[in-house]
Amino acid sequence: MMKYRPLPVGIDDFEKLRTNGYYYVDKTLLIKDLLDKKGEVNLFMRPRRFGKTLNLSMLRYYFEDTGDEARNQKNASLFEGLAITRAGEGYAKEMGQRPVIMLTLKSAKQGSYELAYRSLKEAIAWEFQRHREAVKGRLGQPADIERYGAICSGKGEDGDYFSSLAFLSKCMYEAYGKKCVILIDEYDVPLESAYFGGFYDEMVSFIRSLFESALKTNPCLEFAVVTGCLRVSRESIFTGLNNLETISILRGDYGEYFGFVQQEVDAMLQEYGMGDKEETVRRWYDGYQFGNTEVYNPWSIVNFVKEHLTDRDALPAPYWANTSSNSIVKALVEQIDDGDGQMQGQLEHLMNGGTLEKPIHEDITYDSIYDSEDNLWNFLFFTGYMRKVSMRQEGEERLVTMAVPNMEVSYIYKHTISAWFDKKRRGFELSPLYAAIECGDTGKMEEEISSFLEGTISYFDYGESYYHGFLAGVLGRSSKYRVLSNREAGLGRADIILKTQRIRKGRAIVLEIKAVKRFQEMEEGCAAALRQIEEKRYCEELRQEGYEDVLAYGVCFFRKECIVQKKREEP
After folding, report:
1. CA distance 5 to 569
2. 453-463 pLDDT, tens digit each
3. Cα–Cα distance measured from residue 328 to residue 350, given in angstroms and rounded to the nearest whole number
4. N or C: which end of the chain has fewer CB within 10 A?
5. What's CA 410's distance to the chain center, in Å?
6. Are 141 and 196 members of one domain?
């Protein structure tokens, strides 16, 4: 059996990945671009699970002077054979030359400010502890020594943490005599949790203070790299940060460093003997556009390949769907009830493969998500739930034509929509529909069914299977009838059969469903449904069971229109 390199699912520490021989898609030329472009504070906006944490870890091991020569040499060995080692002597000289502060904020995904703040304090304390030996005996002021110890132990005052990154960079400069590199990962995770948890203003205040002190006119800073999904506007976080370089998914540079490009996906599939899966992974996990670069979702690709090593015939799965609460998609769907139907129509259009053109802006805040429909589409775009098809300028405004990226994201929308529809369906008042069915009032049946359809989202190209599931789901809440779907009856399978619990003096109802492509074909569709009921002898089978009262309906759909014709079966 061929031995493959292990796949790094969930491995975001560069040293662990390289030391243990995991498969690595080489992104080290990010180092070259950062050094060439000399941005002082670089903010990378990319969707979740697109390699941000691993890239920051890679930067840390490349630039960090640990204060221990043997350790520095070990870090250098991690880059053997990678692209950055072939980039030139000037870049090699930068290896192991700077103290590095690396802080991840992803642990602050908590439901209250107290828990989130405690998590952030622990993350800060851990970074202070990591550098304790380096600064030991090198701090000149007793107050600094006392404050450093208090933060390490988690017993510092609140004010100590609000400016802790700036303080740590000062301590590192005293210890090394060199300006430091600051790496901050997932800076907006605590802001997202704070918004949905109701403590946004408190968290903004803390993050703003932490960033301002460390990134704005800090004499001990060489450069910084910050990652997140969104650029939260200057007014709330990056106030006065004139040295900020925002690298969003609209920027033309750095596009290839977060996510896998086609060549990288092809190489991985070939190495693991899955060249025949190229079209499958393209449809499911490709489609993101970062600048001018088309990329795949790296999390999903790695998971796909790993699963298929065990089962070559496994079906593609929505791996990315399980990595987030998808709160933003949920917010979009829940907005549908509150509007005039426009958002519902737009979402239906997208789910059927269409595009939308929307104004786009990078300065957004979580607390503005409901301020306008455009803000909500901006959130979806920058967090990876939409992709850029094209972009144009109109006056001062940039307009992006966007679409659903791939089948994996389409699944997330459909799953969220299905949950929303199930909840909505439970609120339907069904007694008028059942009364109309029982008394043969086809006009009222049409009115009720069409009304339900208007309040739902259709995304299966209006095929019979969609309408079948829709109507079976609506009717399934009855306490009077058992609802049977696609059960054998007579010489075939009737679409939907309703049966009372009692047979003697009870009732059975057959509904055969058709969907047509033109409005003018609806009458014929109903007639075809009734012919099928007769030819397949559905009603005769029910009478043989003992039901004396049998009703039969042909139901035909065109988009959100419905017509019903009945055929009463005499006992």
Report:
1. 67
2. 877 766 655 67
3. 16
4. N
5. 11
6. yes
Q: Which residues contact 193 (CB under 8 A, 6 or more apart)?
A: 108, 109, 110, 111, 116, 203
User: What is d(CA 412, CA 440) in angstroms, rounded to the nearest whole number?
Assistant: 40
pLDDT tens-place string over residues 475-512: 887 788 999 987 766 567 889 999 998 888 889 999 99
Length of the chain measured in residues: 571
275 exposure class (CB count in 10 Å sphere: 0-12, 13-18, 19+): exposed
Sign of CA dihedral 34, 38, 41, 44: negative
Give pLDDT tens digits for 103-126: 999 989 888 999 999 999 999 999
- Residue 43 CA to residue 251 CA, distance in Å, equals 12
pLDDT tens digit sequence for 147-195:
999 999 988 888 899 999 999 999 999 999 999 999 999 998 898 888 8
Q: Is 559 left (phi over 0), alpha (psi -120 to 50) or beta?
A: left
CB atoms within 10 A of CB 338: 8
Residues 434 and 485 grouped into a single domain: yes
pLDDT digits (tens, 9 = 90+) for 544-562: 899 989 999 999 999 889 9
Per residue in 418-454, pLDDT (tens digit) is 676 666 666 678 889 999 999 999 999 999 998 888 7
- Residue after which a domain boundary falls, among 307, 322, 337: 322
Residue where a domain terminates, one of 217, 247, 277: 247
570: left (phi over 0), alpha (psi -120 to 50) or beta: beta
How many C-beta neighbours within 10 Å does residue 506 have? 16
Residues 141 and 41 in one domain: yes
Number of domains in the chain: 4
User: Alpha helices, DSSP H only, in 337-372?
Assistant: 342-351
**Which pLDDT belongs to residue 41?**
95
Q: How confident is the model at residue 322 (pLDDT cuts 50, 70, 90)?
A: low
Which CATH number goes with the domain that contains 482?
3.90.1570
Instruction: Give me the pLDDT at residue 25, please.
Output: 98
| Same-domain status, 532 and 398 | no
The secondary structure element, H or E, covering residue 296 is none
User: Are 159 and 63 in a shared domain?
Assistant: yes
Say if 1 falls within a structural domain: no
CA distance 155 to 58: 31
pLDDT on residue 441: 95
The reply to whether 234 falls in a domain is yes
User: Tokens representing 335?
Assistant: 């907005």
The answer to whether residue 419 is domain-embedded is no
What's the pLDDT tens digit per position in 230-243? 876 645 677 677 78
Say yes or no: 143 and 210 in one domain: yes
State which H helix or E strand residue 542 sits in: helix 538-545
Cα→Cα distances 59→180, 211, 399, Å: 13, 20, 34
The answer as to whether 14 is a domain residue is no
Q: Where are the beta strands (DSSP E) in 86-197?
A: 100-104, 180-185
> Which sign does the torsion angle of CA 87, 90, 93, 99 carry?
negative
> In terms of residue numbers, what domain contains 551?
428-569
With a CB cutoff of 8 Å and minimum separation 6, the contacts of 377 are 356, 358, 386, 402
Contact at 8 Å (CB) between 282 and 300?
no
Question: In DSSP terms, which residues pair with 184 in a beta bridge?
Answer: 103, 226
Same domain, yes or no: 147 and 231: yes
